[in-house]
Amino acid sequence: MQLLWALWAACATADVVRLPSLWALWVACATADVLRLPVTTSFHRRGNTITQRVRRRHGRRLRTTIPITACNDAVYYGDVLLGTPGQRLQVIFDTGSADFWVNGQLFDGSQSETYVGDETYPFSVHYSDGDGVSGFRAFDTLTAGSVTAPSVAFGEAEAMGNFYVCGAEDGVFGLAFRAISRLNAPTAFEMLAPYLDEEMFAFSVPTDTLAGELVLGGVDESRFVGELQWIDVSTPHKYWQAALTSASIGAQPLAGSAAVFDTGTTLLVTTEANAWALAGALDAWCYAWVNACAEINQ
Questions:
Q1: pTM summary value
Q2: What DSSP letter does each residue of 73-101 carry, written as one string?
Q3: Per the CB 3.0–4.6 Å rule, which of 151, 244, 273, 292 could disulfide with 259?
Q4: Does the annotation mark 262 as catalytic?
Q5: Catalytic residue among 94, 99, 140, 170
């Protein structure tokens, strides 16, 4: 299992800040400058039994592109269709979580010919910033770009709690591994993967001059120059996490041994020492909350 990544951060000054990770303490730096993070991420998986079954039944496989837009450079949205006929929903594509869920007030299962609700199976998910939703598990046909998969499990959220990012989100499309899913079923991407040219996805984050896109089934080679670098994903496979050999901002080294790549947040998660080093290097006012999770110690 490998992860293709490129992560850059640049302030409005001539200095380039390299931030190749998201670690254990949330940091937000309040400066007048805009901090932009163009990200390319890819997923490559072989030997999937679902893929092998579908490959025997279907000869044609696809690569498809979903336009994505940014909300205040905080999260990245795109449209999917759920149900038969498809109901259009705007979802956050999030590599930091594994569950696909939608707001049950915006999706009407009674209007779908292929909808199967499972109210006996409760669903709830809570994110590291305190947001969370709850409801029940359901299954329906999902179309992402030009690729359609039947009987995809999703959470139908009845209680949105305090979940709010920019107010335009209809749900979240988790792209992390099944091991952290609450649905007890293959993830949405796993269900789409058998119909794709390659079991891979790639992000190109929108900028002021370039539209964003999520490619399912390959990489858009027009979006980069040079050779892509492949990095092994850490095991067990839960998050898009890789070993971190070194990190620095200017001449200031940062401590850490692993990095998680998360398209669902603009927060930097790191140690308190790293947080203040970043703030000092950026000449920024910083505020931070310590994450007490015992599992994250780097």
A1: 0.75
A2: TTEEEEEEEETTTTEEEEEEEETT---EE
A3: 244
A4: yes
A5: 94
